[in-house]
Amino acid sequence: MPLYVYEDKRTGMTVEKIMPVAMRDCVEANLRRVTAPQRVCVVSCSAVDPSSADGSVPKALRDLEGGGMSAGAIAKEAGFSVEQLKKIWRTN
Q1: What is the Cα–Cα distance from 52 to 44, expressed in whole angstroms?
Q2: Cα–Cα distances in Å, from 41 out to 37, 63, 76?
Q3: For the chain, what is the largest distance between any 2 Cα atoms, rounded to a whole number of angstroms?
Q4: Three-state DSSP string of 29-90
Q5: What are φ and ψ of residue 66, in 5° steps?
Q6: Model's pTM, two decimal places?
Q7: pLDDT of res. 42
Q8: Which of 16, 15, 21 is nearest to 1 (CA)?
């Protein structure tokens, strides 16, 4: 069963509940479901060493594109396909 995070409107505190999907909205009236719980992000986002290739290559690609270079031009210069660059970009 999935874990859901709710915010208590009265206190501002968060409440975690493990319940079936069909029951996720059957909670007390003062609870509001949080759409993107922080705990999930912390678990799914792994820290990458910025000096490693896994950390520096995607950042360099983002910097190039942010500087006005198109994905096609970056692919041509780097010798990769646009699809390969997209895959690298999404890794971090």
Answers
A1: 20
A2: 7, 24, 34
A3: 57
A4: CCEEECCCCHHHHHHHCCCCCCCCHHHHHHHHHHHHHHCCCCHHHHHHHHCCCHHHHHHHHH
A5: -65, -25
A6: 0.40
A7: 45
A8: 21
